[in-house]
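Take one protein record:
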Amino acid sequence: MRRKIVKQGTATMTISLPSKWVKQNNLKEGDEVEMTEEENKLVIGGEGSNDEIKKIEIKGKFGKNDLSHLYMVGYDEVVIHFDDEKSLNEILDRVNEIIGFEVIDQTEKSVTIKNITSELDSEYDNILRKTLLIQKDMNENIVNALKNKEFERLKQIRRQEVINNKFTGFLVRIISKKGYANQSRSPQAYDMIQNLERVADQYKYLCDDYIELKKINDEELDLLIEANELFLRFYDLHYKLTPEKKHEFRKLRRELFEKTKKALMNNPSIMNHHVFNIAEKIYNVAGSFFAINV
């Protein structure tokens, strides 16, 4: 689609917006639009009033993970018909772990859940930063608990994964409904957030195993500390990406991969398996981030 530039006054250049696009985005005189520069392109996003609510009614078998998936792909109102109290309790527990979803109606055989918040693009960076900080804190807490043989403390630390799920779910929802700030990188941003959620899962699984094992040796702990260092390197380069930091991150990842592979050959312990998986998930997060910023 091509538009002719019209000069207004001495320095202002204007173009008209396609009427079909204006109607689709419910724009009217006085509304604001979002404009993003992408190299030699100017991307315009509509921010007009859009009252359309995405609804769905569920009958039949439905679990708590299904509710999370509907939330992440952008549904605003979900009516669920359930058969037993156990299913209801699982769904209600999951509602408490989702930002913005609340129960607005409940009968003996159904529950209605609705989103009561607005997914503001401006919240994306803030929530992402909180997610990274929580993961950083979780990693450090696990090492401290293992170092001090405080295995029962891991039961509390693993709860930080629930907060991670809240935040990553909210970020995925923003991408699903509005796209990433750089629209052409939305798939990569989606992938990065999903991988970040998987990093937290790996640390949670580690907690579960060591709550039961109640023992760890120094060599295994040192390897976990190196995995945590890999995450710290990613956190640092996420906010200040340079070719040097990117190179150092990849170098550290290769070194950790070789150490973990050797450790697994000599001692295929649970910790060595966890460190291998954690390092790979962190590298996947970084890979998505590099693709966003290519």
